[in-house]
Amino acid sequence: MPLSRFGALPEGGGTRFRVWAPKAARVDLVLEGEDRTLPLEAAGNGTFERFVEGVGAGMRYRYRLDGGDALPDPASRFQPEGVHGPSEVVDPAAYDWTDDGWQPPTRRDLVFYELHVGAFTPEGTFSAAAEKLEALRDLGVTAVELMPVADFPGRWNWGYDGA
User: How far is Cα 36 from Cα 132, in angstroms, rounded to an integer?
Assistant: First the structure.
């Protein structure tokens, strides 16, 4: 099953929660703020899941394996309180895209730049990096890949954290 099919997946009036926990006998969903814990159902191959009606974007949650500590979702789209805090349901389909006319460059014209936001400018911020995009374009760059793609502990590690 592709990684994109794990995590909190909003669909038709609720959210499907799916996690791979092959060594767990039981997985519970802990809904933060509602003080509600719901068991997930074993779906085979170490996967547990449950559809929860009425839960949507903005709900914070964790998983509890075999009665242990409540843990963040390893396939979370958003960790607003950091990697050890609760995960938050995000609905990617809810974003109102405004760039319908954008056309990607042809493969022949692709020139990638792997950009580490923390090291790209002295400020180490997305705003500071955005101010330098024209310079990358003038260099001939046609595509920027932001690194890293996942959250992890540490302030300045930017994707090379061995933890």
Answer: 46
Q: How far apart are CA 163 and CA 159, in angstroms?
A: 10
Cβ proximity of 156 and 148 under 8 Å: no
Q: Residue 163: its pLDDT value, please?
A: 44
Tokens describing residue 117: 């936001």
How is residue 122 written in tokens?
Answer: 């002295």
Query: To which H or E segment does residue 130 belong?
Result: helix 126-130
Please give the sequence-ordered ranges of beta strands (E in DSSP) within the chain, or none if there are none. 7-11, 14-20, 27-31, 36-39, 41-44, 47-53, 60-65, 70-71, 87-88, 112-116, 143-147
User: Tens of pLDDT along 99-147?
Assistant: 888 888 899 999 999 998 888 989 888 899 999 999 999 999 999 998 8
CB 108 within 8 A of CB 97: no
**How many other C-beta atoms lie within 10 A of the C-beta of residue 51?**
15
The DSSP output letter for 56 is -
Residue 25 has what DSSP assignment? S
| Confidence (pTM) | 0.69
